[in-house]
């Protein structure tokens, strides 16, 4: 049965950059388990003849022509940025996570 | 930045005596589509920062991506050229990570359903064929470009903050991943280099990318591990990122083999991590440890529907493929009349395409080979740049040979023309004019120089009059010196023999 442990929730929170206190973990981990179990009940309805799907519509191959269309100006692109310099987004220094 | 720790390296021959290398290559190819992978922004990096962006590639809320059909076509053609199967149905996936070069906080990529899989490429190394198996080739998007500000070096460590340009974010990428290449032994560095060089040639022939490594259109990550000789197991690997020339690919493999071996033989173990390649010092340094950071929480991309290339489309694209590389090499060798050794050297220097284009521009095959494998291969070694990245075009090489053929310059002067073109002094004709390199073909000026050479060397002149034609060489030397090399030696000889007949 889908059950999610407290340790798994803590791990996911770390990956998602969500700071959770011990109290919050105690509170949320069981709730997530309940949600997963509820969603899993769909399995009881879907028989072997119903394949799992990730999309609601049976569409494939929706392509765009390879044509350039105007986007934003640099000013527009940066208008919502908390900080910018020389038409670039300014972000805090990054510690050892270069991809 | 702290001073890099100097790694202990084991001599290469000792490495081979004790260990078997396993090699793996991941190559990112930036496609040359007009627009980006999922939006209509121009797929051109550079220019004014953040002027080629839109809500989709900036990851603004509510923006919806749509797949560039041309990029899918290019992906399939690359896959077919690599003898891959093409998926009948596949999806995009979100690769979740937090780093400011990807504003969406995920990269749209493919996970367990790559569009191309199970292929191979036959790579020629020193005249032998090595089959490199391709595990997959999948579609994804490029990231933005960070500029690190502050600190002492401008590199990431010690930076105070970073400035990001998203013009590159969303440009289509195809990532091509090999299966582990085993059994290459001491040739592992050459196999790696030859694979990347031949892959580039294929990409160029397909016309799907500019494929310039120095511009980052083609970027190689080198995976390497060692196992005790004959053990048949796989050791812990390191991944050296963004190795950006053929030469560096070869050197990075060699370096990692020697570094791993020194650690393992000392009883240590290899840390599974990414490594950074440093072009200037030809070493790798430790990057990010591969552990939790590898948990990208991939899931199918809900905003993009699956890609299901019809078999008719795939067959149609198969018909657009360039000639198979092995067949092509055999055909060119026959056309050009190259010996096996000449052909092997040409391929080994990564100059096959360059020689072919130079011949297409009108140069004779042997002349094209001579310049690329002589003068230009030497320059590429001296300057530490790949031969394809030298600032000279096949058309310019052909033009210089044409100047030799019509006796505007001789071979020696032609070398100076190469020097001028490589130094950015302009076209071959401009270099000849600005450096004053044209040979003196005016018989009046030549004749005067010949006359004075004869007058100054009566003994030699006498012998020639007596029929000892071979003695003409000494007089030719005198005349050439007088003309400071700018004369056609053949014409000088003719004049000497005429005057002393």
UniProtKB/TrEMBL annotation, chain A:
State which residue ranges cross the membrane.
Answer: none
Keyword flag ATP-binding = yes
Gene3D superfamilies cross-referenced by the UniProt entry: Glu-tRNAGln amidotransferase C subunit, N-terminal domain
Q: Keyword set for this entry?
A: ATP-binding, Ligase, Nucleotide-binding, Protein biosynthesis
User: Which protein are we looking at?
Assistant: Aspartyl/glutamyl-tRNA(Asn/Gln) amidotransferase subunit C
Q: Which NCBIfam families match?
A: gatC
Reaction equation(s) it catalyzes: L-glutamyl-tRNA(Gln) + L-glutamine + ATP + H2O = L-glutaminyl-tRNA(Gln) + L-glutamate + ADP + phosphate + H(+); L-aspartyl-tRNA(Asn) + L-glutamine + ATP + H2O = L-asparaginyl-tRNA(Asn) + L-glutamate + ADP + phosphate + 2 H(+)
Known role: Allows the formation of correctly charged Asn-tRNA(Asn) or Gln-tRNA(Gln) through the transamidation of misacylated Asp-tRNA(Asn) or Glu-tRNA(Gln) in organisms which lack either or both of asparaginyl-tRNA or glutaminyl-tRNA synthetases. The reaction takes place in the presence of glutamine and ATP through an activated phospho-Asp-tRNA(Asn) or phospho-Glu-tRNA(Gln).
Q: What is its EC number?
A: 6.3.5.-
Q: Where is the signal peptide?
A: none
Q: Which species is listed as the source?
A: Nocardioides astragali
Q: Note the subunit structure.
A: Heterotrimer of A, B and C subunits.
| UniProt KW Hydrolase keyword | no
Q: Which family does it belong to?
A: Belongs to the GatC family.
- Report which superkingdom the organism of origin falls in: Bacteria
From TrEMBL, chain B:
UniProt xrefs under PROSITE patterns: GATB
What family does this belong to? Belongs to the GatB/GatE family. GatB subfamily.
EC assignment: the record states 6.3.5.-
Q: Which HAMAP family match?
A: GatB
Species of provenance: Nocardioides astragali
Q: Is ATP-binding one of the keywords UniProt gives this record?
A: yes
Q: Tell me the protein's name.
A: Aspartyl/glutamyl-tRNA(Asn/Gln) amidotransferase subunit B
EC supergroup of this enzyme: ligase
**Do you know which SMART domains this protein is assigned to?**
GatB_Yqey (SM00845)
Question: Keyword annotations for this protein?
Answer: ATP-binding, Ligase, Nucleotide-binding, Protein biosynthesis
Purpose: Allows the formation of correctly charged Asn-tRNA(Asn) or Gln-tRNA(Gln) through the transamidation of misacylated Asp-tRNA(Asn) or Glu-tRNA(Gln) in organisms which lack either or both of asparaginyl-tRNA or glutaminyl-tRNA synthetases. The reaction takes place in the presence of glutamine and ATP through an activated phospho-Asp-tRNA(Asn) or phospho-Glu-tRNA(Gln).
Reactions mediated catalytically: L-aspartyl-tRNA(Asn) + L-glutamine + ATP + H2O = L-asparaginyl-tRNA(Asn) + L-glutamate + ADP + phosphate + 2 H(+); L-glutamyl-tRNA(Gln) + L-glutamine + ATP + H2O = L-glutaminyl-tRNA(Gln) + L-glutamate + ADP + phosphate + H(+)
Q: How does it assemble?
A: Heterotrimer of A, B and C subunits.
Q: What is the phylogenetic placement of the source species in the record? A: Bacteria, Bacillati, Actinomycetota, Actinomycetes, Propionibacteriales
Q: Name one Pfam family in it.
A: GatB_Yqey
